Here is the input.
Amino acid sequence: MKLIVFTKKDCPQCPNAKAIAKEVAEELGLEYEEIDIERDLITALQFNVASTPSIAFGEEVLFRGEVPTKEQLKEEILKLMK
Here is the structure.
């Protein structure tokens, strides 16, 4: 499964969200992808994402417009992997 971080160029919280998501993806052996919502609006709309940063796992958006802690993100992913 894939962990996706939705970002945009002028998002002040996005670097932190990307770092946390990338670290969690590596620890759990997940694919990782970053999507700029201004460049790939269609994908953002498919996930119903308008605020950044947002983090999705598979088809489900876990966090919208907020940066979770590493532990929060791992917990949500592990719930969905059961």
Remarks:
- The chain has one domain: 2-81.
- The chain has a mean pLDDT of 97.
- The domain at 2-81 is CATH 3.40.30.10 (Glutaredoxin).
